[in-house]
Structures are given as C-alpha cells and as structure tokens.
Amino acid sequence: MNVLITNIQIVIPSGTEVYVRDLAVALKRRGVGVEVYSPTLGPIAEQIRDAGINVANSTAAIENRPDVIHAHHFIPTVDAILRFPDVPVIFFLHNRVHALDDPPRHSQVMKYVAVDYNCLDRLIIDNEIPVEDTAVVYNWVDTVVFKLRETFAEKPSRALVFSNNAHAYQGNYFRTIREACEAEGLAVDGVGFGLNKSEMRPQDILGNYDIVFAKAKAAMEAMATGAHVIVCDTIGLGGSVNATNFDHFRKFNFGMKTLTRPIKNQPIIEEIRKYSVPETRRVARLIRDAAPLARSVDELLNLYGETVDRYKSEGPRPTDHDRQTIRHHFGLKNFRPE
After folding, report:
1. Which stretch of DSSP H or E encloses residue 198?
2. Which among 13, 119, 171, 292 could disulfide-bond with 114, CB atoms 3.0 to 4.6 Å apart, if both were Cys?
3. pLDDT at residue 125, rounded to an integer
C-alpha cells in the first residue's frame, strides 16, 4: 500500500507536524510506501527525509501514485485531490476553530476523522457532514521514544511551560504561570516557538521536569514521561490530570474544550499543590496503556484498507460540493493580503 500524507506545513515541532512525522516514520517501518506533501517545508521535513521518506513541496514532486490520501488541512488536501483525481481521501481534523482546518466537501473524501469529540462537533454540527461519514481516532504518544522516568521527586522543584503559544511579553499566560511557580519555590522554563526555544527532541528534556504545563499532544508526551501535567494554554486553564478525570480529558484531546478556567495566579498555585507521585504514576500508566503509537498505526492501517476497498466497490461518494470546493481552493491559493 502507498499512503500520501498532507499537511499545511512541515516546519516546526507543532501538533500536526509532529503527528505527520511520527506517522510517516512508523508506516515506513511497517513496510508501507509513504510520502508527505506540504507546500512549506523546514526542519521537521528534514527529519522525515532522514528516515528515507520523500517529502514534496509540490504535487509534481510526489513520486508514486498513492492508494489512499491521509489528509490534513483544506489547501494541501485539495492540491492532492487535483493531482490524484481517482484516489480515495480520509480527512483528519485536529483543530476546532482554525480556518485552515476547514473540511473539504468532495466526492473523493470517503471519511472525515476527528482527533476528539470537540473536533467531531466541527464536522457534524458546523459543516453538516453526515454522522455515518465521520469517526474519532484519538491522538497517540510514541511510548518507545517518550520513556517513563525511573525516579520521581517527592516534592516538585522544576516546572516547564511546553507550548508554541507561550511568549515572554506582558499579558501572555507564560508570565502568570512563572509568577505562580516562583511563589511555590519552583524554577520554571519555557519551550516553544513563541519563546524562540523550539525543542526538536522533547523526549530528551521532559524527564527533567516534575510539573509540565501543556495541552493536546504535548500534554500527552509529558504524561508519558511521568510528569505531573497541568492542562493549560493561552486560552485557559484545564487543571491537573488525574486518574478520575483522565477519560474526560482524553475525550477532548487534553485540549481546547477542557480549558474552561481563567489563567490566574491562585488557581495555578492550587493545581501545583495537587502534585502527587502515586497519582502521577497512575496517569503515566494510563496514557502509556491507552495511547501507544503502535496501536494507533494498526487502527489507521485498518481504516486505510477499509477505505480503499470501499472506494473500489462503491466509487466516489455522491456530492454536489466538488465544484464549489475547487473554486474555494483556488480562491485561497490566489489570495494575497495587502
């Protein structure tokens, strides 16, 4: 089987870019033919190429006809559809609100997959995609790479804000977290694009921190290493992950839907004080048992196979949206802000 993965960019270690890298490498290790297409490339693309995988920034540079397209983001998805007008597409949605994540309505898209139930609402409620054409496939952690620490501090001393949305300027949530951590005697660092400290190998540093403030995939990676994770980002505070609320947080990808509280000094201090080695161990085991990359790859390979078989037997899905989708695509591609 040949799989083409699309993404709007493959540049920095952010959610979908890391997702694409890890998936592409895992598929290749399984003997699957895999290529990646993105209009904008950077350091993460080089990591994928180092694994022997073709990463193309034009559809003309895609070397093989795919059997299925694993698609992210509207523009590169439609680029791939135009390049391969007879290949089935599975569109994956990772963000509830971002304009670039609009799901393309097209007859080649056989399935729309959300990474959580918040994104599923965008598909079904916002875009009126039939329920039977949707599914939820949760995010994962590469538990081989993100190893569980051997020792846990009885009292936390180091914290990390792990997000591309963290900035040093006044008014950003990073400052509030830093003030709260310092009030509790914790040294605090920040990693992310907004702090000019992108970390290409977070697996090398997460084990050094007792408490990590993060959301979504970054939160899952920190949990897998045995950090006490406080789900938090620029839009709000979710709180400490524990064995009781784990399923609820996972249902919403430890992300936007859970960030319901304002980011203020005292609530953050309260979450810091919930640090517990036994509870952190339980959460680490839960995420490592629930979300290993290998199991997710199995699930995706089954989905690819089912989609290819369905496309062969039924053909493209009936829809009246194709022309409108293509027109919208070229409108976006030709738009130049003043």
Report:
1. none
2. 119
3. 96
